[in-house]
């Protein structure tokens, strides 16, 4: 039988995969970054056991990429966001974080606590 | 050669398909409906020639579906939203609208004006 | 520090959330079910530590829903699929499964083995 | 009242926006490119008035981007695909095409014929 902590970590992973693949590809610009970040947080906080989601769209990185482009907006991808999330499952609290590591958006367990 | 009006209608269709398939499946509840609607509007307004987007999430319909369900949230689908959009392309303004028609979310041209 | 087993479970959750939210909303009919299932498997097997993905689209349930509808296709959602996935992370193998439980597509840890 | 040709062009646009935003962000590698292309074609061909969809994933461009990356797969985006689509609406046939133009995936009307 999987332990409570293992299940809590599984739940935390589900939220991260959901957030990323639901919203990857969304048209985003410095002007629309804020409403997108709020919607991502509120949408994923609906999911079971999700205590809090904090999405930070990296507006400076986005603006600098658009300055070198013929496009006025980009498609949302891991390069343009940092995410922190806390899941609580039967008394175990799991903290997770996403940031770029080389060319991968790395999703990491930060801590697992009873 | 396609006419300006035909191209304007093509552009209007692109925006509708984008909005629908980017956001279909997003976890949504009465509490998160508003931030999702704002993000959908702002995201699609980034796209070329898109003058305005108005998304209305049908919170009463959503609440009544959730009342009959073991779930606390639903996945966004056409049944839970009405959308109006205006595209302007080289002087032609196209108004469009989405609402349910039987079991299809019907996307319609409302008017095409020089 | 999270344990290897906890990290393996987190990785397994990421794959499930990714699969679900990337493909939820895809137009699907009995005719296109098979190519969609193969693409879902192959896409998620690209992700790190993902050993195998098996997607079964429930064509009979889909056909029976379409028989009662004015639509010729549906949007993919949890009601129309069962998924099994195996993740292997630093020697720990995690088996997971998704099937409906009431109105939720429940994603479950089946086993965690060294 | 919008003309038949204008409605046909609107329908063609819907299919393009749907295809792009349903599948943008999907993990893709040279190995999984083919099943993804087939699933995209079959999924969008379900939509009303859609006669044919042809998706070509640019495997050489994808392989060359991955050769410069620490990642083994990419997220699907316009840079990695060319798409041709034909819509038929009440006797009007619309041919469309997507390819990159600078940094935008440009979706174009090729022809509109009675």
Structural commentary:
- 4 copies of one chain form a homotetramer.
- The first copy, chain A, has 114 residues and is of the alpha+beta class.
- Chain A has one domain (4-113): 7,8-dihydroneopterin aldolase (MptD) (Pantoate--beta-alanine Ligase, Chain: A,domain 2), CATH 3.30.1300.
- Chain A has helices spanning 4-23, 33-45, 59-67, and strands at residues 27-28, 50-57, 74-75, 81-89, 92-101, 104-113.
- In chain A, the strands form 2 sheets. A 4-stranded antiparallel beta sheet of chain A has the order 2-4-5-6.
- In chain A, helix 1 packs antiparallel against helix 2.
- The longest helix of chain A is centred in the N-terminal third of the chain and has 20 residues, at 4-23.
- The first copy, chain A, starts with a helix and ends with a strand.
- The B-C interface holds B 20-21, 24-25, 69-71, 75, 77, 102-104 and C 20-21, 24-25, 69-71, 75, 77, 102-104.
Rg of chain A, Cα atoms, Å: 15 Å
Mean pLDDT of chain A: 96
**What portion of residues of chain A is helical?**
25-40%
- Gross morphology of chain A is elongated
Q: What is the helix/strand order of chain A? A: HEHEHEEEE
- Report the CATH architecture of chain A: 2-Layer Sandwich
What's the CATH superfamily of chain A, by name? 7,8-dihydroneopterin aldolase (MptD)
Quantity of strands of chain A, as a count: 6
Topology:
The structure is a homotetramer of 114-residue chains.
Chain A: H1 4-23, E1 27-28, H2 33-45, E2 50-57, H3 59-67, E3 74-75, E4 81-89, E5 92-101, E6 104-113
Antiparallel strand pairs in A: 1-3, 2-4, 4-5, 5-6
Helix pairs in contact in A: 1-2
């Amino acid at each position: 039988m999987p332990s409570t902590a293992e299940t809590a970590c599984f739940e935390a992973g589900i939220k991260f995969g959901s957030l990323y693949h639901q919203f990857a590809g969304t048209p985003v610009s410095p002007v629309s970054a804020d409403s997108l970040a709020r919607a991502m947080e509120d949408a994923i906080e609906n999911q079971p056991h999700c205590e809090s989601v904090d999405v930070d769209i990296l507006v400076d990185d986005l603006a600098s990429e658009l300055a070198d482009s013929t496009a006025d907006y980009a498609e949302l991808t891991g390069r343009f966001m940092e995410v922190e999330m806390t899941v609580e499952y039967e008394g175990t609290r799991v903290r997770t974080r996403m940031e770029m590591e080389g060319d991968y958006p790395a999703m990491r367990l930060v801590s697992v606590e009873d």
